[in-house]
């Protein structure tokens, strides 16, 4: 029972692996009870993957991975201890439980410690069409990566070099169980193809790329199309200019716009709030965005990147608005952070489960036309965001827009503002949703930001 099933059986026998992990979790919970733990929880996972990297028509790396992990957390009243292992031998498993118990016996009481309440456990456990193993061997994976890179190199005469192309595929099965009797099983796959190319020569070189990621290989973009788009993006960045420092509209392309939502999530997450390390303390019920703006959490999307019936505490997930009519509706809380704040959990231990930002505008081209004059941001650099004050300052590159049309590439500028003011100054969210993330948003236009250039 403890022996791992050899490849490629993890792909075809995922239910058998889930059964084995569920059985293992019950043995560990029983071991914790024998040692006097009042509560316990166990997380078990097994991952397998294949990744290849090529560059300039040559194979650089081929890697096959196989990982597993078992984490045990025990509670003795309000004292908590955790330990983990990747060793499935019986003596190692027992030692892991004993170590978790020993840690718990020597820690201080924490009033927020403990499992979520039993009545909050998920009881409608389902799958979301997230299991699509790609039975691809290394030779075929290499061929696809080479074809991706070659298509990009052939597409644009100004492509002189390459940072390479890659293909990856992986499977994951996991079980979370606790002493309330809850046992949750999850299985998922994820596949990706990407290419990064270099245009120009010498000091004038510019790098850019493109990638596709999906739960099912059939949903990936064509490898040649990925290479061609990488070439187009790299060549478009040649001969960048600066712009005069000033206040301008700033359009964040869809793949960059989700970082703005990420800053919101960080500020309204429980850990930042109970540590008083957020610029959005006491903000539930306040107007943060324009009245048309909304964000909804959708944990039950078929083939959603973060679809789940339960969170990392076993608590049932639910469809729920995060922002409605511009007003923040709730925080993002797991059991522990909710108790620290004296609030109910929102079923978000481990993070959010698929966010949809509502669009109020047309496609990317219409957003560019509507902006008329300003900066289109396609890349951000640096970490210049203060989570306590909301001050925002990041290096950026992209394109200058004049007369509603992209005119020339821009490099070496800084975009700056304050996130609270930036949120309120959002004028449009496009319909050009980037599907490569659990945060689904189109491009976001902010009416005015400081752009520091020449």
UniProtKB/TrEMBL annotation:
Name of the featured protein: Peptidase PmbA
Gene (name only): pmbA
Domain Metalloprotease TldD/E N-terminal: 40-104
UniProt xrefs under NCBIfam families: PRK11040.1
Top-level division of the source organism's lineage: Bacteria
Family: Belongs to the peptidase U62 family.
Organism listed in the record: Lysobacter daejeonensis GH1-9
Domain (Metalloprotease TldD/E C-terminal): residue spans on this chain: 245-453
Domain Metalloprotease TldD/E central: 132-238
A GO molecular-function annotation: metallopeptidase activity
Gene Ontology process terms (BP): proteolysis
GO cellular component entries: cytosol
Listed InterPro entries: Metalloprtase-TldD/E_C, Metalloprtase-TldD/E_cen_dom, Metalloprtase-TldD/E_N, PmbA, TldD/PmbA_N, TldD/PmbA_sf
């Amino acid at each position: 029972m403890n022996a791992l099933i050899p490849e490629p059986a993890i792909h075809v026998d995922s239910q058998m692996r889930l059964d084995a992990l569920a059985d293992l979790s019950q043995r560990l919970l029983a071991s914790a009870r024998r040692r006097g733990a009042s509560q316990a929880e166990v997380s078990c996972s097994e991952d397998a993957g294949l990744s290849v990297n090529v560059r300039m028509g040559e194979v650089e790396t081929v890697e096959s991975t196989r990982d597993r992990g078992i984490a045990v957390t025990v509670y003795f009243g309000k004292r908590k201890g955790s330990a983990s292992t990747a060793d499935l031998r019986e003596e190692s498993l027992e030692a892991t439980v004993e170590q978790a118990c020993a840690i718990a016996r020597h820690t201080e009481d924490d009033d927020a410690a403990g499992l979520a309440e039993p009545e909050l456990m998920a009881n409608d456990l389902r799958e979301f069409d997230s299991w699509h193993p790609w039975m691809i061997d290394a030779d075929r994976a290499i061929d696809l990566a080479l074809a991706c890179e070659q298509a990009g190199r052939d597409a644009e005469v100004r492509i002189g070099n390459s940072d390479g192309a890659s293909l990856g595929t992986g499977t994951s099965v996991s079980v979370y169980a606790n002493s309330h009797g809850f046992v949750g099983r999850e299985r998922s796959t994820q596949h990706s193809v990407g290419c990064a190319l270099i245009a120009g020569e010498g000091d004038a070189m510019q790098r850019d790329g493109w990638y596709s990621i999906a739960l099912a290989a059939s949903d990936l973009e064509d490898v040649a199309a990925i290479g061609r788009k990488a070439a187009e993006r790299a060549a478009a960045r040649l001969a960048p200019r600066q712009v005069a420092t000033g206040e301008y509209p700033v359009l964040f392309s869809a793949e960059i716009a989700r970082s703005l939502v990420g800053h919101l999530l960080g500020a309204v997450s429980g850990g930042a709030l109970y540590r008083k390390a957020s610029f959005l303390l006491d903000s539930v019920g306040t107007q943060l965005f324009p009245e048309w703006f909304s964000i909804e959490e959708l944990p039950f999307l078929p083939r959603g990147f973060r679809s789940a019936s339960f969170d990392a505490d076993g608590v049932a997930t639910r469809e729920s608005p995060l922002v409605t009519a511009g007003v923040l509706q709730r925080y993002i809380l797991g059991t522990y952070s909710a108790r620290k704040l004296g609030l109910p959990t929102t079923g978000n231990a481990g993070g959010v489960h698929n966010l949809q930002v509502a669009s109020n505008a047309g496609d990317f081209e219409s957003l560019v036309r509507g902006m008329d004059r300003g900066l289109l941001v396609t890349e951000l650099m640096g970490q210049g965001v203060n989570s306590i004050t909301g001050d925002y300052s990041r290096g950026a590159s992209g394109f200058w827009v004049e007369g509603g049309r992209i005119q020339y590439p821009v490099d070496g500028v800084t975009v700056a503002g304050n996130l609270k003011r930036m949120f309120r100054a959002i004028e449009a969210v496009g319909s050009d949703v980037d599907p490569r993330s659990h945060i689904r948003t189109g491009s976001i236009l902010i009416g005015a930001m400081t752009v520091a250039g020449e």
